[in-house]
Amino acid sequence: MSTEKRTLTTSWGAPVGDNQNSQTAGQRGPVLLQDVHLLEKLAHFNRERVPERVVHAKGAGAHGYFEVTQDVTKYTKAAFLSEVGKRTDMFARFSTVAGELGSADTVRDPRGFALKFYTEEGNYDLVGNNTPIFFIQDAIKFPDFIHTQKRDPRTHLKNPNAVWDFWSLSPESLHQVTYLMGDRGIPATLRHMHGFGSHTFKWTNAEGVSHWVKYHFLTEQGIKNITQEVADKIAGENPDFHTEDLFNAIEEGDFPAWKMYVQIMPLEDANTYRFDPFDVTKTWSHKDYPLIEVGRMVLNRNPENYFAEVEQATFSPGTLVPGIDVSPDKMLQGRLFAYHDAHRYRVGANHQMLPINAAKNQVNNYQRDGQMNFGNNGGGSVYYEPNSYGGPTETAAAKPAPLEVSGMTDSVPYYQEDHYTQPGDLYRLQTPEEQERLVATFVGGLSAVDKEDIKLRQIGHLYKADPEFGTRVAEGLGLPVPGLTETK
């Protein structure tokens, strides 16, 4: 930090004569309304906090780069993936989902895994989690789901009855809940967890050939998790444990890194695959669609100012570049609107102008005005399109590849509604020790629920996933498995 003496000024650049005493009418006052420095200082202080994020409020971030390590041009024409060895500046933000800005880092919760790539074709955001799946299939259920994770409007306390009532009435959540209640529900640090795009996206190459794609970021630090007991102890001693760990690691030169892989599915396979590939509560088998290496993400620079770079960072899965497009995933489709709209509300209509969000390439459009427009607002250039004055025009090569759609308009679920096979597989894949901890976590969580029918309903889902799984949780709660009768 520079030690050069500088003059304190107001926000409009005028020097401040006294920053210790308000202007008063005589020594005892009252304070004068004409003290514009005082008014500005207090008014700005009142507005220092933008509304916190409704979800993913507590987070940590860092700058870094992404380097391509394998040729994937046969799958996508995205410029930042166009050649091996190419590096692109990026920013990453990791977060919990349900807690407030001051909540503990080590809660049992999914972690947001949001990445911003500053490419030569504009910014590309990949906004995922540290889990490859999610709790619900359709964005229409998202506000209700998040309400269950927040505070009860009457008691202002977390409400396990609401959490488990919603989950037990939404069997699609079972896969993610099983993942969350397992060991990976509490990562040891933000550096020791994988990241996933979670949704299905579409890649298109220069010839116009498209494939469905899923993103995987595998930590080079290895997976490390902590038990509920250790997490609770850390939460009481250092609620900012993950934030501190990431900052210190980078500050000490121990730069965390992740290898990026994708799964590639031919478009036509989506019509016949045994699970709906657009259902975000399901995964694609690695045997069916093996991981293909793409590149490497390295975080090597801490923010200089948390608010400017982490709190004001805005991400949306709708921030796309040519060669990368969306899929019919219903959760993704809802997020395309909701994320940009949340930023317009929380940070402002011109949030893309903030340095942390601004594209590195030149931005040309006809958007004008709006709160906090601190650019030149288009100057005196033409402000509509089409025009005869040489204003920016569209580029046909940037159009997304067409996708055939058909059918009757209706409110319908995914065609494949098997909510139990993959959670059962996840349970059976675990070691006996991991299963024991998983069962104990379910028992502990459901023990806080008041209504027995909620517990029984959840046990029924677990039993359908794996009879042993459901029976062990039922025994731990001292309850029968619903629908089963004793035989002699």
From TrEMBL:
<dbReference type="GO" id="GO:0004096">
    <property type="term" value="F:catalase activity"/>
</dbReference>
<comment type="similarity">
    <text>Belongs to the catalase family.</text>
</comment>
<dbReference type="InterPro" id="IPR002226">
    <property type="entry name" value="Catalase_haem_BS"/>
</dbReference>
<keyword id="KW-0575">Peroxidase</keyword>
<dbReference type="InterPro" id="IPR018028">
    <property type="entry name" value="Catalase"/>
</dbReference>
<feature type="binding site" description="axial binding residue">
    <location>
        <position position="339"/>
    </location>
    <ligand>
        <name>heme</name>
    </ligand>
</feature>
<dbReference type="GO" id="GO:0042744">
    <property type="term" value="P:hydrogen peroxide catabolic process"/>
</dbReference>
<dbReference type="GO" id="GO:0005737">
    <property type="term" value="C:cytoplasm"/>
</dbReference>
<keyword id="KW-0479">Metal-binding</keyword>
<feature type="active site">
    <location>
        <position position="129"/>
    </location>
</feature>
<feature type="region of interest" description="Disordered">
    <location>
        <begin position="1"/>
        <end position="26"/>
    </location>
</feature>
<feature type="domain" description="Catalase core">
    <location>
        <begin position="9"/>
        <end position="393"/>
    </location>
</feature>
<dbReference type="GO" id="GO:0020037">
    <property type="term" value="F:heme binding"/>
</dbReference>
<protein>
    <recommendedName>
        <fullName>Catalase</fullName>
        <ecNumber>1.11.1.6</ecNumber>
    </recommendedName>
</protein>
<dbReference type="Pfam" id="PF06628">
    <property type="entry name" value="Catalase-rel"/>
</dbReference>
<dbReference type="Pfam" id="PF00199">
    <property type="entry name" value="Catalase"/>
</dbReference>
<dbReference type="InterPro" id="IPR040333">
    <property type="entry name" value="Catalase_3"/>
</dbReference>
<feature type="compositionally biased region" description="Polar residues">
    <location>
        <begin position="8"/>
        <end position="26"/>
    </location>
</feature>
<dbReference type="InterPro" id="IPR024708">
    <property type="entry name" value="Catalase_AS"/>
</dbReference>
<dbReference type="InterPro" id="IPR010582">
    <property type="entry name" value="Catalase_immune_responsive"/>
</dbReference>
<keyword id="KW-0560">Oxidoreductase</keyword>
<dbReference type="InterPro" id="IPR024711">
    <property type="entry name" value="Catalase_clade1/3"/>
</dbReference>
<keyword id="KW-0408">Iron</keyword>
<dbReference type="InterPro" id="IPR011614">
    <property type="entry name" value="Catalase_core"/>
</dbReference>
<dbReference type="GO" id="GO:0046872">
    <property type="term" value="F:metal ion binding"/>
</dbReference>
<keyword id="KW-0349">Heme</keyword>
<keyword id="KW-0376">Hydrogen peroxide</keyword>
<feature type="active site">
    <location>
        <position position="56"/>
    </location>
</feature>
<dbReference type="InterPro" id="IPR020835">
    <property type="entry name" value="Catalase_sf"/>
</dbReference>
<dbReference type="GO" id="GO:0042542">
    <property type="term" value="P:response to hydrogen peroxide"/>
</dbReference>
